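so my prof wants the structure for this chain in the tokens format not the other one, which i didnt know existed until like an hour ago. anyway here's the sequence
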Amino acid sequence: MLEKPRQFGNLMTQVIRTDACSFCGACIASCPLNVLWPANEKPTMIGTCIMCEICYYQCPNIEFSKDDVESFMYGRIRRADEPIGITQGVFTGRAIRTDIQGKAQDGGVVTALLAYALDKKLIDAAVVAGRDSKWIAKPVVVTKSADLVKYAGTKYTPSPTLIGVRSAIDEYAKSKVGMVGTPCQIRAARRIQTSPMGNRRLAQAMSLTIGLFCMESYGYDRLVAYLAAKGIDPSTITKVDIKKGSFIAWSEDKELLHVPLKEIDEYVRTSCKECDDFTAEFADISVGAIGSADGNSTIIARTEKGLQLLKDAAKEGYLELRELKPDGKTIQKVLSMAQIKRVKNAVKS
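here's what i got, hopefully its the right format
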């Protein structure tokens, strides 16, 4: 007996209605008829489904296989002594350009890497998270390195990154796209690249993936309601950050909010509570603040492509880079945070 087609209705039942959707945008970006659309941080249908099954098999929350992805990326699967995935090296560093340092998160490493990749034509577009005047996150396609600084900084609410990749292909006619994403968004990229029904145009266009360390993100509507109750207009916020167990928001140099993370824990997206990936284990390069001094980032090169990009960007003067010992304090702090996330979310699941 033939199985029934796995269509958008199955995504609704298994992922969307159970609040397991991470709003990565993979299903929306892959739909050949463009009948899926983002609404309230979820995909919704605005046209007639032809039951092609493509959206279903792009979802990173459906049948995601770490073994398949690692075999695709490295030709092997991780060993027991590789708890945060296969790596080629661990570094600490920061951007050299002062304009990047002043605007970007932590060391500005992600912005500097994308600037180098664009300048050297390793990619012809970068998809990053921008925001509108109300701090609503959205994917933005950047084709000139000078424009990257406009969108620097973490947003902490979800942006459907894969829609940006589709936009880079369809609206900008680009074929070598670099994308920045949280662990769930990087998984979506790898799911597309390894699924037997993966969208080939998206799969082939994603040339570089830079993943961000991520413990969790927040639902926009509930977080903004909380800020409003504190008398804060989101349109006045210029930067947000999570440091030493606190959520901090600024307007230029003025601190608007500084509260313990536990105070906003109830606004964490449900899908984040089912994620066990802290370090974006399937990216070419992973970047985060944990373990590095203020103004610097911890950088994990995961693929040979990622390692070469790091070294070349440092050689060309885009980055200050220092390699770290594989058993040093920095990586131990990263491993500890990764374990905390695994244990925390295993208990909740």
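also thought this was worth mentioning. The mean pLDDT is 93.
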